[in-house]
């Protein structure tokens, strides 16, 4: 194998993954390490920064060793990680407390108080960021810290995100990228922070804690000698500024052309459309991510994606949950049950936080509808998979997507039957790109751009011979069974979500 090669790091709250790629984006080696979060109080979600750094360094070292390539042929590193939250550092870059993650909910009362004082508070934020603000976003977390831990903020020099903390540890450079700045919440149109939104939270005295904003594909520093020795690469290895996990994953799919739809069917299910301008319609629902190359990703999120299938295995078929052949058994169950699952419907709202699309409803919950004695677990499994596919069709409708292709990645995309079912239900070609580590690949491409090896990041991803393509069958979305099942799904959704759901 000949280089150059590029490392991509994708650090999450439950797993940290790294991969080595060539310039075409082919995976040379992959490694991953399970990580954990701490929940010291109900609704809190924290990470030990030292553990996170050790996981990142360890997984990068493993992938370098297992790749077998010459360290001198590795030309750069790109970093992606779970977005927002707060990693609070002192002037020397040492963490002052455990990191607060994106899923932390401690800011609920603070946000509720803002809404009580200013009923359009959330709408004003959406008008700037294009996203329904989550409780674990950086600005509300900083406001909570200012109220409850002011002594800590008085000692702080920086408040950064996960990937930016890792980049500092690797290079000694403090900064962030536009994908993070715009969702603090910030300004999607400006691709930056928003002073107006900072003021909404009363955070003017702490504005200086937020780091400089740079392009994701810019050079973010060079690797320190001690870190390079631990990983097994050369000292001074270029490190790109990097991007948040969603932005890096979308980039890693290879679809930055405006009008293309991309879906991530992972633990959560996100469906979105690439645009060359920030899109704020429909208002007060969904998310808007700022991507490299003056692109944006307007997305709708069903909080539970493959989580629904995991629940089904663990609850409905515990005898299958740990079996290596469980997905082959799943395929057999799908073969034994017709589309529509004999009239059984499932709403895939399996989250304690409810849903934020197609409408915002914290009380929405998963449920079966139409359950009768004839329904066995094969029917229930088909209903679960169809329910997620129907939800994806819902989200495409909310986005007013008119295209004919949906690029699909994530753990759920590895199942051909589910991918084909999605193609039939959404009525569009589904393309599953070759590869498994799309967040790491997007980060690696940022490193390739930062080092001058990739001139046009928009053209980085090409359809490869290894891509799997699923055409909607002529009897797919228009088949009577699916039409009947979709009508039943929408009736159940209307009962659950009320009149607002009729507009989605």
From TrEMBL:
Alphabetical list of CDD domains matching this protein = ASKHA_NBD_FGGY_EcLyxK-like
EC number(s) reported in the record: 2.7.1.-
Carbohydrate kinase FGGY C-terminal domain mapped to chain residues: 261-450
| Claim: Isomerase is one of the keywords in the record | no
Per UniProt, residues of the Carbohydrate kinase FGGY N-terminal domain are 6-252
**What does the similarity note say?**
Belongs to the FGGY kinase family.
Name recorded for this polypeptide: FGGY-family carbohydrate kinase
Q: Which organism is this entry from?
A: Mesorhizobium marinum
């Amino acid at each position: 194998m000949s280089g150059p090669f590029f490392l991509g790091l994708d650090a999450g709250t439950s797993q940290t993954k790294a991969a080595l790629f060539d310039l075409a984006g082919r995976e040379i080696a992959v490694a991953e390490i399970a990580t954990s979060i701490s929940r010291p109080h109900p609704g809190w979600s924290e990470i030990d920064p030292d553990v996170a750094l050790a996981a990142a360094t360890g997984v990068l070292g493993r992938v370098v060793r297992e790749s077998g390539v010459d360290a001198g042929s590795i030309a750069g590193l790109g970093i992606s990680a779970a977005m927002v939250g707060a990693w609070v550092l002192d002037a020397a870059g040492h963490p002052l407390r455990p990191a607060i993650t994106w899923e932390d909910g401690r800011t609920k009362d603070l946000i509720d108080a803002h809404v009580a004082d200013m009923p359009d508070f959330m709408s004003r934020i959406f008008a700037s960021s294009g996203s329904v603000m989550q409780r674990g976003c950086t600005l509300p977390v900083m406001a909570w810290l200012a109220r409850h831990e002011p002594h800590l903020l008085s000692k702080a020099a920086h408040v950064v995100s996960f990937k930016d903390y890792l980049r500092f540890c690797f290079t000694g450079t403090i900064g962030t990228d536009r994908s993070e700045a715009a969702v603090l919440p910030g300004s999607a149109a400006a691709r930056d922070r928003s002073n107006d939104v900072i003021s909404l939270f009363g955070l003017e005295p702490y504005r200086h804690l937020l780091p400089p904003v740079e392009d994701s594909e810019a050079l973010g520093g060079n690797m320190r000698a001690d870190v390079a020795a631990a990983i097994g690469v050369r000292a001074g290895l270029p490190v790109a500024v990097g991007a948040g996990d969603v932005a890096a994953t979308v980039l890693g799919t290879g679809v930055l052309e405006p009008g293309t739809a991309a879906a991530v069917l992972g633990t959560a299910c996100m469906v979105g459309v690439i645009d060359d301008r920030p899109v704020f319609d429909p208002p007060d629902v969904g998310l808007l991510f700022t991507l490299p190359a003056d692109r944006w990703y307007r997305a709708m999120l069903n909080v539970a994606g493959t989580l629904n299938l995991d629940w089904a295995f663990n609850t409905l078929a515990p005898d299958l949950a740990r079996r290596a052949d469980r997905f082959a058994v799943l395929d057999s169950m799908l073969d034994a049950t017709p589309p529509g699952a004999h009239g059984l419907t499932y709403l895939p709202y399996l989250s304690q936080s409810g849903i934020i699309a197609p409408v915002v409803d914290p009380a929405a919950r998963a449920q079966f509808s139409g359950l009768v004695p004839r329904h066995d677990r094969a029917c229930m499994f088909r209903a679960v998979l169809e329910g997620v596919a129907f939800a994806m069709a819902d989200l495409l409708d909310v986005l007013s997507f008119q295209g004919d292709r949906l690029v699909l990645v994530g753990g759920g995309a590895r199942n051909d039957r589910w991918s084909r079912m999605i193609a039939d239900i959404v009525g569009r070609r589904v393309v599953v790109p070759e590869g498994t580590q799309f967040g790491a690949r997007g980060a690696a491409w940022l490193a390739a751009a930062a080092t001058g090896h990739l001139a046009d990041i928009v053209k980085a991803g090409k359809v490869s011979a290894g891509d799997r393509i699923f055409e909607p069958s002529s009897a797919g979305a228009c088949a009577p069974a699916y039409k009947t099942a979709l009508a039943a799904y929408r009736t159940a959704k209307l009962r659950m979500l009320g009149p607002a759901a009729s507009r989605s």
